[in-house]
């Protein structure tokens, strides 16, 4: 027992609490196979990222965003190995939270558990909004096909804050104005809310509540349908790109008239990091299902890695089809890129738009399902440790699911739908997940190596003592060779004339307020990037020194450094929201969890 905030849990204790050895009467049902876990991973990854944020990523990076998908996949692959190592040792629910408790200690475990709420619960708010957009579009297209007046009013298919912010920003689009002008009023307040988002959240919460077996069957069917339609998009779109002679779009001209696979340079590709990483969020959700897996020590690692490989191939092909079908510049503000390429002014295949709408609704539903399953199991694990009230670990006697935690998750996702918007919730998600990945990769370095055991995953040990420092040195040298002014630019915190011109391109110079706003935004973005990058290189040097001394394993080191590099692409707004959320979490921990923890020296009666 200890009063230290860094007190750790023994792996043997975690396994005993997780009822790893049986299907026991009070535990969760062990029904998931390798196929189920792989399908859950695909269900989580191929969703809002591929159907929504992919358009913005393509706009920033052009066809070259494929490179960022590969870099991000490599980072996620290294991280998946680390998750797999933990999952083979600690095959219980809780994911990164449980792993951090065994390696870094209680405070970091709480922080990562609190951060994962941003990934699963708050992330699901964004997915609910996206699901509603595609469902509304699907209803409209179905009405046109059947010649029926099927339409969900704009004021019942968007959030109040989204419309309010759009009006304040001068947006006069038809959908925004219809939502604002046609909304009924009660006491001077316009009644605007996203009804489809609320309904799908309620339905998914009920499905997760009644059992993992039912959720598994539903998820597997959706994944099959989704993969069929996505495959059709790749085949039809790819065929038309070549048959119409559109492959020149893969080397578009930039502002200087130079044709390039990366028209905005590598900096433009890195500007898409939030959208690209959001597309991968979810593969780690598989690790949350450890206690419901038949053979978690073998199947969890395989399920994560298989789903990651499959989805990376799909993303690369989708990106090539999108950037081949349409010039990358046309994807600005496009929220449905897969349907957009088949519109009349582009590839002109109207029936494909209908199938894409179906695929998007299916994809979003499967993502909602997996994330809604993940959050209750993390809360259950935190409750087992005394960091949350005991009711959070309550298992339903009939359905064998964490019933109270599931209901609370539904409320945490559902209630904010009434008063938030997409931009607000999206700022939370990627940075919290990357932070969790950093701690998982770092945690593997802190636990002792074990002997290889048949039937269990063992992360391959490659001594990183000299290789890792050489990689860091070679990477920095490469940046300097490509850009001799790299070091000077890194420590320059003011805008150059070229950067100012780029920020104000196409803006009326007489609009002084807009000029000042864009200049300030560009300056803040540059300062944030520079500070993050400086911290990254300092972290790389520090980790290199530790690798030299401790002879750390190379794969976790690579996972750690690649995730840290991706964090350099986050904006000041991302860091501000994340910092505020962590501060709130620490207050709750010290007011409740620290004293009531089961590792506390003097338990509270």
How would you describe this structure in keywords?
605 residues; 66% helix; 23 helices; Amino acid/polyamine transporter I; mainly alpha; two-stranded antiparallel sheet
Task: Show unreliable segments.
Answer: 19-26
CATH class of the largest domain: Mainly Alpha
Distance between the termini: 16 Å
Structural domain count: 2
Residue-averaged pLDDT:
80
- Please give the CATH architecture of the largest domain: Up-down Bundle
Residues in helix, %: 55-70%
Describe the structure in your own words.
By secondary structure, the protein is mainly alpha-helical. The chain folds into two domains: 53-159 and 194-451, Up-down Bundle (Amino acid/polyamine transporter I); 474-540. Helix content is 66%, strand content 1%. The chain contains 23 helices and two strands. It has helices spanning 11-17, 34-45, 48-61, 65-89, 96-103, 106-146, 160-168, 174-182, 195-210, 212-243, 265-270, 273-280, 296-325, 337-340, 350-384, 403-414, 422-446, 467-482, 486-490, 497-503, 512-550, 554-567, 572-596; strands spanning 185-186, 189-190. Strands 1-2 form a two-stranded antiparallel ribbon. The longest helix has 41 residues, at 106-146. The protein is globular. Mean pLDDT is 80; it is low at 19-26.
